[in-house]
Amino acid sequence: MSTYTQKKGFGATLWDYLTTVDHKKIAILYLIAGGIFFVLGGLEAMFIRIQLAVPNNDFVSAGLYNEILTMHGTTMIFLAAMPLVFAFMNAVVPLQIGARDVAFPFLNSLGFWLFFFGGVFLNLSWFLGGAPDAGWTSYASLSLASEGHGIDFYTLGLQISGAGTLIGGINFLVTIINMRTPGMTYMRMPLFTWSSFVVSALILFAFPPLTVGLFLMIFDRLFGANFFDVANGGNTIIWEHLFWIFGHPEVYILILPAFGIFSEVFATFSRKRLFGYSSMVFATVLIGFLGFMVWAHHMFTTGLGPIANAIFAVATMAIAVPTGIKIFNWLFTMWGGSISFTTPMLYAIAFIPSFVAGGVTGIMNAAASADYQFHDSYFVVAHFHYVIVGGVVLGLLAGTHFYWPKMFGTMLNEFLGKITFWLFLIGFHLTFFIQHFLGLMGMPRRIFTFLPGQGLETGNMISTVGAFFMAVAVVILLINVVITQVKNVKVGNDPWGDGRTLEWSIPSPPPFYNFKQLPLVRGLDAYWLEKMEGKKGMTPAEPLGDIHMPNSSFIPFVMSFGLFVAAFGAMYRADYAWGLPVLIIGLLITLLSMAFRSVKDDHGFHIHKEDLMNDDDKGGKA
Q1: Of the given ranges (5-19, 288-302, 317-331, 598-612), which has the lowest mean pLDDT?
Q2: Angle of helix 343-366 versus helix 394-408 axis, rounded to 10
């Protein structure tokens, strides 16, 4: 089978992506779906900022504003940032550890389709009677009082999507533990793989509390249970605990892969080994560990008492230490390096002061007594966006430019990339820096308008102008992507010229089996070591032989679609006679496809040695 397959028609390509279990194609699916949701969440953000541009604005009504605000947060966290993180984990991790695929290719596909159908289900709420309107955290007292089915879309959609994320996390844990190439010890793994490893462990432990909380909310709303109904002996604070035991590790689930991307970018474009590699690894693990010990800092104002507040305040301050270690190591990596200011490197350099600003305001929020003043003001909005946009989004944009050639075999235009960078960076700081001061001047979160004469007009207008800068930047990035793919100028295996890790040793995009022969790793930055000794590629760890690969499968799509159908049935069960049959049909689709998967004998297929040799003749090496 040739790596360079013939041009296929649209139908054949669509079927290929619907049934694929190849981690590289699943990465592209995550990138496209996450990109669409990112644009959607961005549009919702623009509506928020237009509404708040001037006092007493009536651009949207109060009720619609609550829906837009809720969907913006939910979409950006669950449906944009998470899948884009998974896009890079899928595209890069198996290549960095010298594996031919992930441990469970079928589950990899299932994870994507569950996420996708959950996201589509959630966004259909706009067209089916109204979106969720209780804020992205969906606090129980607000959720239970919410009319219509908006919150039901939220609980069922996130439940389906979250199952996909959990499956993905387990898959990457097993992949990194079991499928490293010979010589790839844990302390030789690239930092991006390390951060993906820790993130997968965080997903494994953080998503079950959310799953439990969502189930309790579903039972309360759809089946009349009283877990959160205070009048019937329930407790609304339990939802906050369950949500934040998931929600705070979730912040690290998003930021650690961004840290990993920046670690690769700093080392590559400083032409130096990452400074303090082992301390970076331990800092990553420590951040993951401490991430579970700080959730109640979101709840300082709920009255947990001074002892609980003090413990969580100290833990929150402690988590700044490993993050600080990382910041200094990145600075020392650049120190004395031969720096090239490519687009990914610009994002990486801009990330440091932006993220540190978010971290400093985090330490301010960690002081429980001060948090009583900051809580639910725009100061917290500013802090949160400095961490998420200044960390995660800049990381994802850096990763997009850095790994685009590896994923697609083409290079994004550097000039357009730098325009995107400057517009986005200026827009980001314009939008959110001023919000610190708006918060300190008394502007509360989650309000749909404000009165004139309170001194809030100028700050809000500046913030809105900044949001338009960011919007223009994203449009230019999309134009860049279209131009690049239309021109389709192919690049070699190491397009940046200074690739240090295994993924840069194979063609761009990689053949579907990744490595003809598994590479032998002889130290940290394995590919760089081989290049420094004047070798063209990696030393193989095995003779050329047959390669076993998994078959494509349509079953993950069908299983996920079944849950999508069942969710509608569960939601409308009490309203319409057809609700219960639809619920049963949806569950049957899922269960029967699971049964079919169990009895079907699928042994995959082999690529024969002769075909691999033929690939060499056709220029398998870039």
Answers
A1: 5-19
A2: 150
- The tens digit of pLDDT for each residue in 405-444 reads 999 999 999 999 999 999 999 999 999 999 999 999 999 9
Q: At what angle do helices 105-123 and 82-96 cross, to 10 degrees?
A: 170
Amino acid letter for position 472: V
- Give the C-alpha separation, 78 to 428, whole Å: 21
Residue type, 230: V
Q: Are 262 and 191 in contact (CB under 8 A)?
A: no
Rounded distance, CA 261 to CA 92, Å?
10
Residues 6+ apart with CB under 8 A from 32: none
- The H or E element containing residue 605 is strand 605-607
CB atoms within 10 A of CB 136: 18
CA torsion sign, 530 to 534 to 537 to 543? negative
Coil/strand/helix, residue 514: coil
Q: Compute the distance between CA of residue 439 and CA of residue 47 in angstroms, rounded to an integer.
A: 20
Amino acid at 370: A
Please say whether the beta carbons of 192 and 162 come within 8 A. no
DSSP-derived secondary structure for 493-519: S-TTS---SGGGGS-SSPPTTS-SSPB
DSSP states of 104-121 as a string?
A: -HHHHHHHHHHHHHHHHH
- Radius of gyration for the chain, computed over Cα atoms and rounded to the nearest angstrom: 24
Three-class DSSP category at 549: strand
Alpha-carbon gap, residue 95 to 91, rounded angstroms: 8
Residue among 432, 357, 431, 346 nearest 395 (CA):
346
Which residues pair with residue 547 across a beta bridge?
A: 607
| Pick from 340, 198, 202: nearest CA to 281 | 198
Q: What are phi and psi of 9, to 5 degrees?
A: -70, 170
- Position of tokens 């890790």? 501
Classify 606 as helix, strand or coil. Answer: strand
Phi and psi based region of residue 269 (left: phi greater than 0; alpha: psi -120 to 50; beta: remaining): alpha
Mean pLDDT is lowest, of 140-144, 271-275, 602-606, for 602-606
89-98, 520-529, 607-616: least confident range: 607-616
pLDDT at position 69 is 96
Q: What pLDDT score was predicted for residue 616? A: 63
Q: 437: buried, middle or exposed (CB in 10 Å: 19+, 13-18, 0-12)?
A: middle
Residue position matching structure tokens 């590699």: 277
Distance CA 238, CA 157 (A): 21
120, pLDDT greater than 80: yes
- Cα–Cα distance, 588 to 107 (Å, whole number): 20
pLDDT, residue 600, reads 87
- What's the rounded mean pLDDT across residues 541-557? 92
Q: Mean pLDDT over all residues of the chain?
A: 93
- Describe the chain by its helix, strand, coil percentages, rounded to 5: 70, 0, 30
Q: List all residues 6 or more positions away from 42 whose beta carbon is below 8 Å from its beta carbon.
A: 470, 471, 474
Q: Is 490 helix (H, G, I), strand (E, B) or coil?
A: strand
Type of residue numbered 91: A
Q: How far apart are CA 229 and CA 240, in angstroms?
A: 14
117: Cβ contacts below 8 Å, ≥ 6 apart: 160, 560, 561, 563, 564
Rounded to 5 degrees, φ, ψ at 549 are -130, 150
> Which residues, in sequence order, are bridge partners of residue 548?
606
